[in-house]
Amino acid sequence: MSVARITEISATSNKSFDDAAKLGVERANKTLRNVKSAWIKEQTVRVEDGAIIEYQVNMLVTFVLDD
CATH fold of 4-64, please? Predict the structure, then answer.
């Protein structure tokens, strides 16, 4: 039987939401083992002078705990 844990992380990108999600999962894989999925919980943008300057995703990352 496997046991999984979920942790919430936030990641940003100046390119896109997709890029922010990709960077977040890549970073999670550096610290967490057995990452299995990520659910995008929330997306926001930072605006400056009427233009989007940063994309942010808050995601729930699921990983399986070692036995």
Answer: Dodecin subunit-like (3.30.1660)
